[in-house]
């Protein structure tokens, strides 16, 4: 058997500057686990487990229980046999293992100039006053959450936002599965005449057939997000005929190795997106994005959402 790695892990908490509002509810604190693997030569690999249970990953408690039962050591064999029911753990441990054998930091620094970022705007009317500073920082693609207030209110704000943005700007609208069929049709009709790159997850996960039908009826592309949260879901939607955009959240999708194999085999139209992980998870996610994404801005413009610092932090 391969020599085991020394394993250390600690939970963390990061408080949002203001609660993040989505159709799933209000989110105030991001919690996760930082992993540190050390090999027999003293090399260190960092990883992050950043669960998002309402998207289909394991809970933080399930991830912590898994880490505790491992003890102080873990082998590569164990890392690559983590069950699919723990996708955030799969990503965290495989990422830490990969970091042991590669200079991930230098790779990301070399590739950053080739990455285009989209930025998440606050929901509601606050977007109208906050896009300008972000534009001045260099962002040209903005994501805005819908399906939170009434469609009448949101359409009114949306038209104001579209009018205010420069012509070279683009919008991504994310409903988090919070629209009805009629609301989704109305949004798609409006989007056809405005600078909208795509409408993300307009209907709930269980309405896949309706999502597939919607995708054939309008010129504005639809992206699946919650429907493809894990690799198993992504593969299932592809088998059922989805050929539009897949939003991939690497930190909860599962095994990086198997994700690479799937994306390279099928050449899907992928947008890589954050789950509000720390810099550790983000570097591993961006490493995947630079390998597998094709001409789509990544959704990692999220730094402004957090107060500085993390509780229980042991990152050097």
What does this structure look like?
The relative contact order is 0.16. 37% of the residues lie in helices and 23% in strands. It has helices at residues 60-70, 76-79, 87-100, 104-111, 127-136, 151-164, 181-191, 208-215, 231-239, 250-253, 256-266, 279-292, and strands at 5-22, 25-38, 44-49, 73-74, 117-120, 141-145, 170-174, 196-200, 222-224, 245-248, 269-272, 298-301. The protein has 316 residues and is α/β, with parallel strands linked by helices. The longest helix is centred in the N-terminal third of the chain and has 14 residues, at 87-100. It starts with a strand and ends in a 15-residue tail after the last strand. It folds into two domains: 5-103, Enolase-like, domain 1 (2-Layer Sandwich), CATH 3.30.390.10; 107-305, Alpha-Beta Barrel (TIM Barrel). The protein is globular, with a radius of gyration of 20 Å. It contains twelve helices and twelve strands. Helix 4 packs across helix 12. A hairpin with a 2-residue loop joins strand 1 (5-22) and strand 2.
Short description, anyone?
By secondary structure, this protein is an alpha/beta fold. The chain has helices at residues 60-70, 76-79, 87-100, 104-111, 127-136, 151-164, 181-191, 208-215, 231-239, 250-253, 256-266, 279-292, and strands at 5-22, 25-38, 44-49, 73-74, 117-120, 141-145, 170-174, 196-200, 222-224, 245-248, 269-272, 298-301.
Topology (SSEs and partners):
Elements: E1 5-22, E2 25-38, E3 44-49, H1 60-70, E4 73-74, H2 76-79, H3 87-100, H4 104-111, E5 117-120, H5 127-136, E6 141-145, H6 151-164, E7 170-174, H7 181-191, E8 196-200, H8 208-215, E9 222-224, H9 231-239, E10 245-248, H10 250-253, H11 256-266, E11 269-272, H12 279-292, E12 298-301
Parallel strand pairs: 5-6, 5-12, 6-7, 7-8, 8-9, 9-10, 10-11
Antiparallel strand pairs: 1-2, 1-4, 2-3
Helix pairs in contact: 4-12
């Amino acid at each position: 058997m391969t020599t085991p790695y020394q394993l250390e892990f600690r939970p963390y908490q990061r408080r949002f500057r203001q609660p993040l509002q989505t159709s799933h509810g209000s989110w105030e604190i991001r919690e996760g686990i930082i992993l540190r693997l050390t090999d027999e030569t003293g090399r260190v690999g960092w990883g992050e487990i950043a669960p998002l249970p309402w998207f289909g990953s394991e809970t933080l408690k399930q991830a912590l229980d898994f880490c505790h039962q491992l003890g102080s050591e873990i082998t590569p064999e164990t890392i690559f046999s983590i069950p699919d029911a723990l996708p955030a753990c799969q990503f965290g441990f495989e990422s830490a293992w990969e970091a042991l054998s590669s200079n991930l930091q230098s790779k990301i620094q070399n590739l950053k100039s080739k990455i285009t970022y989209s930025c998440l705007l606050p929901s509601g009317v606050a977007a109208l006053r906050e896009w300008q500073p972000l534009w001045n920082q260099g962002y040209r693609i903005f994501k805005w959450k819908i399906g939170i207030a009434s469609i009448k209110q949101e359409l009114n704000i949306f038209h104001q936002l579209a009018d205010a943005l420069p012509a070279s700007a683009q919008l991504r609208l994310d409903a988090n599965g919070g629209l009805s069929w009629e609301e989704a049709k109305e949004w798609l009709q409006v989007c056809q005449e405005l600078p909208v790159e795509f409408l993300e997850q307009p209907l709930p996960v269980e309405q896949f057939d309706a999502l597939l039908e919607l995708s054939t009826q309008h010129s504005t592309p639809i992206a699946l997000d919650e429907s493809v949260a894990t690799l198993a879901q992504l593969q299932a939607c592809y088998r059922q005929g989805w050929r539009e955009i897949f939003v991939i959240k690497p930190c909860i999708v599962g095994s990086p190795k198997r994700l690479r194999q799937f994306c390279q085999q099928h050449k899907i139209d992928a947008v890589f997106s954050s789950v509000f992980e720390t810099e550790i998870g983000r570097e591993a996610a961006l490493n995947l994005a630079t390998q597998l994404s094709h001409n789509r801005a990544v959704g990692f413009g999220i730094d402004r959402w957090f107060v500085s610092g993390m509780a229980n932090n042991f990152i050097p």
